[in-house]
Amino acid sequence: MLNNSNFYYLLLLGFFAFMCSSNHSEIEIIIGDRKAFNIDSKTSYASRFFDIIEYDGRECFLLLDHNGMSIQLFDFESTALVKKINLEIGGPDGVGMPNGLVYKSIDSMYIINSNRYEVVLINRYGNVQKRINILRNTNPNENTGMFLPHTSSKAILYKKNMYTSVIPDRNPFDPSFYDGHTQLKIDLKSDSFQYFGNYPNSMRKKIWAIDPFIFYSTQNDDEILFSYSVDDYLMIYNIEEDKYDKVLAISKFSPKSFVSFNESNNGDPTQFSISTLLYGPIIWDPYRKLYYRMVQSGISPKRDDGTPNTYYDKPLSIIVLNEDKEKLGEVELPFDTFLPRAFLISKTGFYLSDMHPDNPMFDDDFTSFVKLDFE
Predict the structure, then answer these.
(1) Closest Cα partner for 279 from 335, 222, 319?
(2) Please, are residues 66 and 48 in contact by the beta-carbon 8 Å criterion?
(3) How many CB atoms are closer than 10 A to CB 112?
């Protein structure tokens, strides 16, 4: 049952969503219930990885805590903690500092560590069952790529292989960075691996500063979709056919032609990223047969009073596409409320993190999500 503060908070969000949807979009956004999971003092509310999994016959919220070194499972309906698996950094069962996870079952979880270039299979006790290392040598800039398996770009299991996004192990302020591979396939039986895929042509031979080299992925059956930060198109990779395609998924706020960092007059990478529209995660929702593409519009690097804007100040919107990847509309979200890279897909709905630091409901004793529906 909602307490009074939750009730009025969701009522206010609903009013804002109604105003934005009725004025600016072909679709409407409906604000639903709020899920708040109570975490202990050692656990970071800003985990790098969240997910919804099936455990013990129920949906559970999975939190990979890189701060307190644990995997925590909460009953999604009641929000109660039901299981905690402690992880070791070093030793025989050491997994380093994890930043991604693939849950197959409670006794088959793959921990991904970017710094070690390693995938580690563990069981329900946190015991290591297998290690796969993709570090080719220890020289800088000679490894092909580093794992990028956060919530917004989860690694994917398909048949005997794992597919994960990687960022080239090169200098991002050199155009050759964008010649590097962006995807990695690991054979989980033979431990062999293969890098493949590239940045879109629109990003090649240029420099895009800090955030715009990041990209995101999602899976729908035998397809992997990629959302690149400064590309109006979605890239589609068909696993079975080993073939690429693309589809336009453009924001109504898009500049239509992106100006790169080296083409701009802005010498500050952070200010450039703040002033540039950046596409965020592409998310497949199999229960509602919809895709969601997050958008952070560009703003002035400075406020009217001369103080700097931050990433948190950028307006947030969501492009909604049907299962045929046709755009249904784009809705704007309330300011100072949501985070674009932390979300959950449940049988009951699509939930987006409302842990924006300026949100009046922010409480670092909890990590919380608000249900969003579209119609």
Answers:
(1) 319
(2) yes
(3) 27
- Structure tokens given for 65: 């805590």
The Cα–Cα gap between 293 and 229 comes to 11
Of 329, 346, 185, 312, nearest to 252 (Cα)?
329
- Residue 294 tokens read as 């997050």
* Residue among 197, 193, 192, 159 nearest 181 (CA): 197
Helix, strand, coil content of the chain in percent (nearest 5): 10, 45, 45
The Cα 14–Cα 22 span in angstroms is 12
Cα–Cα distances (Å) from 319 to 27, 41, 234, 280, in that order, read 10, 36, 12, 10
In percent, how much of the chain has pLDDT > 90? 71
Indicate if the pLDDT at residue 315 is higher than 70: yes
From the number of C-beta atoms within 10 Å of its C-beta (0-12, 13-18, 19+), residue 292 rates as: buried
Q: Report d(CA 306, CA 48) in Å as an integer.
A: 32
pLDDT of 212 = 65
pLDDT digits (tens, 9 = 90+) for 124-135: 999 999 999 988
Nearest CA to 178 out of 202, 148, 211 is that of 202
Per-position DSSP letters for 256-302, written without gaps between them: SSPPPTTTSS---HHHHHHHS-EEEEEEEETTTTEEEEEEE----SB
- Cα–Cα distance measured from residue 114 to residue 133, given in angstroms and rounded to the nearest whole number: 10
Average pLDDT over residues 168-176: 87
Q: Give the chain's largest Cα–Cα span.
A: 59
180: DSSP letter: S
Q: Which among 109, 89, 119, 113 is positioned nearest to 99, based on CA atoms?
A: 113
